[in-house]
Amino acid sequence: MSASEGRIAEVLQRAEATEEETLRRWFELLRIPSVSAQPQHAKDCQEAAEWVRAQLLELGFQADVLPTDGKPCVLAHHPGPGGDVPHLLYYGHYDVQPPEPLELWTSPPFEPTVVDGPRGKRIVARGAVDNKGQLVAWLGAFRAWHSVTRTMPLRITVLVEGEEEIGSPSLEKVLIAQRARLHADQAVISDTNMWDIATPAITTRLRGLAYVQVNLRAAARDLHSGLYGGSAQNVLNILTRALGGLHDAQGRVQLPGFYDRVRPLPPEQVAEWESLGFNEQAFLAGIGQKEPAGEKGLPALVRLWARPTADINGIWGGYTGSGAKTVIAAEAHAKVSFRLVPDQDPGEVLASFQRFIADRIPPGVTASYESLTAAAAIVVPRESRFVAAAERALREEFGRPPVFIGSGGSVPVVESFKRVLGLDTLLMGFGLEDDQVHSPNEKFELACFLHGMRSHIRLLGHLAQA
Amino acid sequence: MSASEGRIAEVLQRAEATEEETLRRWFELLRIPSVSAQPQHAKDCQEAAEWVRAQLLELGFQADVLPTDGKPCVLAHHPGPGGDVPHLLYYGHYDVQPPEPLELWTSPPFEPTVVDGPRGKRIVARGAVDNKGQLVAWLGAFRAWHSVTRTMPLRITVLVEGEEEIGSPSLEKVLIAQRARLHADQAVISDTNMWDIATPAITTRLRGLAYVQVNLRAAARDLHSGLYGGSAQNVLNILTRALGGLHDAQGRVQLPGFYDRVRPLPPEQVAEWESLGFNEQAFLAGIGQKEPAGEKGLPALVRLWARPTADINGIWGGYTGSGAKTVIAAEAHAKVSFRLVPDQDPGEVLASFQRFIADRIPPGVTASYESLTAAAAIVVPRESRFVAAAERALREEFGRPPVFIGSGGSVPVVESFKRVLGLDTLLMGFGLEDDQVHSPNEKFELACFLHGMRSHIRLLGHLAQA
């Protein structure tokens, strides 16, 4: 065992000895209902930011809570041990998705609850994994290193934002304004999944996202369907007819030009993913479904990681209470999002969607739009010393090499880091596909959390030694 | 002037002298928020029923509030002056539609507000016209007769229910159980419109209504659209695709067999309606619309009164809060209704709708249905002494003869009266098309209310004399 390997072992041991304290800290953060989408939780978002800052101050970071036009972010620096060590930018987010529908939770969403599951203990809470648990995993790695060495093994900059779940509207401004303080060699994010509980993964491909709310208005007021039905335009009929045409019978998205920039996947990439042995039937059975959606005739992982989609995320209008109300509504609304693949332009897609709707509404019906997210897809280069160090850390921690996967989700900050800061990002995450992210009873397996913390300890140690 | 004409003049004079008191009584009823669709208003419905009973007791009726499985109804009798006088069954409803959306009301919905409009004073409140105002108009006629003669000019039975706005689920049971007490020669209802403020109308044709809520479920829980988009079924995509196919490009409803029983309208009926000079552009301009919906190539009044329709009255599912939530919802819901014409069977239409949906959902997605209303269309015979008396009353009151019109709306009780009690119904109503029935700022023109009361005074007088 080399000296540095001995040091890593010592830090791992320290992390194990202080596990209870780490959980206590994690649970403190989970108890703060920092829901960025809901204005009533603005104070809680501020509190979560202050909590993160306080943690970093204890570890010798210089740390600030920076106000933005929305929720504040935390920006912190640690100079490391001195000398020519790599400089990492760790990114996370303290905000969480709304917990609704509350009635489907088996325990209160903001009271972390330890549950015995089929794979050992799990922690159930909103944000358990996304992203508070993954964030506390690397904070825990920092703390273990600090506890043993009284410093950090590398130069580390930390950026933790509070608007990831609403599309990071303030992030770009922060990156531009703080460009000098965000200089680093590589970004590191833990906000993705493992392949399965035994197999770690590095994510090298992310879909983009274009998310828009469309509002249709057809009449000056709600109307009685008896008196007006057969003459007045019904905006709910119009909205469903328009959105009902988003896909053809083959599952292909019908926006004009939607696939123009989509390149076919190299056959060797398809083959690599096919070799993972993904079982879509089991994947769907886990959520109570039987038959896959999406484009017909394509392998499941290609559909999930490398093909664009269109989804209605919410729809509402007219009478939604109990009983029968014979109303023809004046307004109708929908939230619609598009998962994008490399080379698709979010702005082009949103413009095409607006034309698609405009072509399907009769004269006198008006449409307005709120663009809520626009982020391009990304491919992360696999050849770098950072990816090599992560590969080694994960192999040592799990006893098997990580697989290189894609993700159907978006981590728009990765695209911003590349574009604004010129930084590539290592995506090393510890979630599982059944973690119920964004759903009731979100959870993080305790084993995944601990593996995550230990993998970050190893990553820092290997990069310090390199 | 004959003796009976003198008597009618005296009663009309009495009504005018006590107008202020009549308005005070009407406003009392409007202040009771008797919303039948909303469980929290159950007590208010009871109170409204008691209010109606108390009015009738003051006029010498024997009157009961009868419990039902839902909201109570009021059943009352007056033996009249004795002798061989006709026996009328007056029907009304004390329940009202939900007032939502509240923010669009210019005054509180349950605080009747007198507003100066272009056609004189109007009363703004939920239920102003539908049906509290029209009901108090005939109660006012009863009171004026009672005040002058200490009795009623005819035998009168009164039935006032509290579930009309939710499809009268208990009414049929009441009609069957109380058949003996509901015996009469003719039913009279004021729940329809005039042709315009100067032209009274008798409605001889009503559309039926089949109203159903459909609930789709696709997954065991809400899903993250990044992790599942492209594989998991999105129930909102499925629901909009299915409902988006309800009409073809010609505006024809696409349920299998929907038009099979629809008979073409006699050309002379079409011609009679065309002679009314209905201005659809102005009708639509009044609600802020430009281009008519409905079946292409048909005259407006035919579409409104004599052709069936399909309308989505409400739709909801997924994330409907502020901001962006990338969720694939587990459940989606819609309220869908069909206006029916004579010979269409509501049960057949609902069954056809269920097949239509079933044909459009993939395996593993489940649909459930709640049938909320099912009433056939009706045609009222024009040749009867009751219609003749009403024609005369309206001609005298307005100085011009009434027109015979259809209505696109449903008064399902008319069909029940015919089927269960063997009774034809005189539909003599005093609403106007711009009364905002079922919408915010519902109103009743004071002139229409007073004409209505006076027309009922005349109707009773002429039938007593006949």
Give an account of the 3D structure:
The structure is a homodimer of 466-residue chains. Chain A has 466 residues and is of the alpha+beta class. Helix content of chain A is 34%, strand content 22%. Chain A has 14 helices and 18 strands. The first copy, chain A, has helices at residues 3-17, 19-30, 42-58, 132-149, 171-177, 225-228, 235-243, 267-274, 280-285, 300-306, 346-358, 385-398, 412-421, 446-465; strands spanning 62-66, 73-78, 87-93, 113-117, 120-124, 155-161, 186-189, 201-206, 208-217, 223-224, 309-318, 327-328, 331-340, 366-375, 378-379, 403-407, 425-427, 443-445. A six-stranded mixed sheet of chain A has the order 1-2-6-3-7-17, sandwiched between helices. Chain A starts with a helix and ends with a helix. Strand 11 of chain A pairs antiparallel with strand 11 (309-318) of chain B, so a sheet runs across the interface.
Question: How many E-type strands of chain A?
Answer: 18
- Inertia-based shape of chain A: globular
The CATH level-2 architecture of the largest domain in chain A is identified as 3-Layer(aba) Sandwich
- Overall pLDDT metric of chain A: 95
List the helices and strands and how they pair.
The structure is a homodimer of 466-residue chains.
Chain A (H helix, E strand, L loop, with lengths): L2 H15 L1 H12 L11 H17 L3 E5 L6 E6 L8 E7 L19 E5 L2 E5 L7 H18 L5 E7 L9 H7 L8 E4 L11 E6 L1 E10 L5 E2 H4 L6 H9 L23 H8 L5 H6 L14 H7 L2 E10 L8 E2 L2 E10 L5 H13 L7 E10 L2 E2 L5 H14 L4 E5 L4 H10 L3 E3 L15 E3 H20 L1
Parallel strand pairs in A: 3-6, 3-7, 7-17, 8-16
Antiparallel strand pairs in A: 1-2, 2-6, 4-5, 5-18, 8-15, 9-13, 9-14, 10-12, 11-13
